[in-house]
Design a protein that fits this description.
499 residues; mainly beta; eight-stranded mixed β-sheet; six-stranded antiparallel β-sheet; 1 helix; globular; binds (Z)-L-Arabinonhydroximo-1,4-lactone
């Protein structure tokens, strides 16, 4: 098999994987966006299809006032006796809980709370026991990876939580996953933080509560020593075995905007490497413990390759991938064929309000997004448009408002909460065509002028909406939005150019 990383592209961090009935299933973090916890399915670990989300109902999660890069962190998916479980942290509200379903294509349960602190929870089903782990303080105030037993029917703790591992000395030991393989309990955990120093480490013990010995070649995975390499930040991993007996690790990593420019704005993405058991029962990742751009994997081993043509992508809104911010009121959205109707409210983009916004992740550096707004539907007090959105303080907008003889379009750059108005054009045509195009380094915002030609209204470097500048854990989402401060707003009609 030959493939290119990332295998899931765009902002889908903290991947966790399980296998059931010949398929692999994968979940990721979603932070302040709703629906929450994207869920993917694959036959071969390389081609993934998003089949839905685990959290689709407000009764499962309240993201009102969730912070940007707060909300839902680091789910783990596991399968046991015909049932799927996803355990996760709501960092702005409920803490740790799990959901379950017997039908992976159907709805998930209401949350079952686990009264344990920490983040990055995980489960191990082991005989008739269910172990719960997270990183943070144990029941005695000790910090590290802590483990306890829970009753999986109620979420109740059956034992106090005990710190089982403090790591190898790197900062932020997190993302624990425990596996019972043969006579060993293997613990995988990330260290170093989710930036350029990120690593994945491995430990083992014959008793789930330890003591754990550290793998002699820890970290088993890291790109921290690959200077001038596009892929950085590899860590936060989970492992699985395919039907041919080949083992695999999936992890997050990110693509810098170029070899020597240490900025990333597409978020942390999903990477895949083959892994191999050593004779003394440890894992080696890929060719040399790094996460590479591509692999060719045969029965004899694997070869890594370090360059790939990154394709161009066109944005299209699809109900399955659509992201809303915090707690959307679905009454403000109507999808009708290629058209989307957005009803603006007084909620503003530059706030933690539930602004009317729907978008999809940007998956490639080179891409174009286009929409046509029906200018006759833009109300006197409305502001609507097309946007490259990192969070409420950092986004690049094509903003449409009503003017005396039609509409005007303004290119607006928001960086660090500062709004900079760039070019503006007035139009008296009924159709307002907007386009955002980008390459790795730069976004360009255009509108069609009176002569029907694309006119650039703003251009800005991608690095200003990168994680290194804006902080946080998310990536750029391309969306359409509508605000309306009038008393009786009408929905604005957007024609979305599909792929
Ligand atoms: C997550 C932590 C991490 O909880 O980032 O990369 C945090 N690792 O494990 C948020 O995604």
């Amino acid at each position: 098999m030959k493939y290119t990383n990332p295998v899931i592209r765009g902002f889908y961090p903290d991947p966790s994987i399980c296998k059931a009935d010949g398929y692999f299933y994968l979940v990721c973090s979603s932070f302040q966006f709703f629906p929450a916890i994207p869920l993917f399915k694959s036959k071969n670990l390389v081609d993934w299809e998003q089949i839905g989300h685990c959290i689709t109902r407000k009764s499962q999660l309240d993201l009102n006032n969730a912070n940007a890069s707060g909300g839902i962190f680091a789910p783990t998916i596991r399968y046991n006796k015909g049932r799927f479980y996803v355990v996760v942290t709501d960092t702005d509200g409920e803490g740790n809980f799990y959901l379950y379903t017997d039908d992976i294509n159907g709805e998930w349960s209401e949350p079952v709370k686990v009264e344990r602190g920490g983040i990055d929870p995980s489960l191990l089903f082991d005989g008739d026991k269910t172990f719960f782990m997270s990183n943070g303080e144990d029941s005695f105030g000790e910090n590290g990876i802590s483990l306890c037993e829970i009753d999986i029917d109620t979420g109740k703790l059956l034992t106090p939580a005990k710190c089982i591992c403090k790591g190898t000395g790197g900062r932020f030991i997190e993302a624990p996953h425990l596996y019972h393989i043969g006579e060993w309990y293997y613990l995988l955990a990330a260290e170093g933080g989710t930036e350029y120093g990120h690593t994945e480490c491995m430990f083992r013990s014959k008793d789930p509560y330890g003591p754990y010995e550290s793998c002699p070649h820890n970290p088993i995975l890291t790109n921290r020593n690959l200077g001038g390499y596009m892929i950085q930040g590899a860590g936060h991993a989970d492992i699985t075995e395919d039907d041919n007996g080949q083992w695999w690790i999936i992890n997050l990593a990110f693509r810098q905007i170029s070899m020597w420019r240490q900025f990333h704005h597409l978020g942390r993405e999903v990477f895949l490497e083959p892994i191999y058991w050593t004779e003394d029962g440890w894992l080696k990742v890929g060719t040399d413990g790094t996460s590479r751009i591509g692999y060719e994997v045969t029965e004899d081993g694997c070869k890594a390759f370090d360059s790939a043509e990154y394709p161009e992508d066109k944005w299209a809104l699809d109900n399955r991938n659509a992201c809303y911010i915090r707690c959307p009121d679905y009454n403000n959205y109507r999808f009708d064929g290629n058209n989307v109707y957005l009803l603006g409210t007084s909620a503003k983009l530059n706030s933690k309000d539930n602004v009317t916004f729907v978008g999809d992740r940007q998956r490639e550096f080179n891409f174009t997004a286009q929409t046509e707004i029906d200018g006759t539907t833009v109300g006197e007090f409305a502001r609507c448009g097309l946007i490259a959105y990192m969070n409420e303080s950092n986004h690049y907008d094509l903003s449409v408002t009503k003017s005396s003889d039609g509409c005007k379009v303004t290119g607006i750059i928001n960086i660090g909460g500062v709004e900079i108005k760039m070019g503006e054009i007035s139009l008296n045509s009924d159709t307002i065509s907007l386009k955002i195009s980008a390459d790795a380094n730069c976004y360009k915002l255009h509108a069609k002028n009176e002569n029907g030609e694309w006119q650039q209204l703003a251009a800005m470097e991608s690095k200003y909406i990168s994680t290194e500048v804006c902080e946080g854990f998310t990536g750029v989402i391309i969306g359409i939005f509508c605000e309306d401060s009038g008393n009786c707003p009408e929905p604005v009609k957007f024609g979305i150019c599909s792929k």
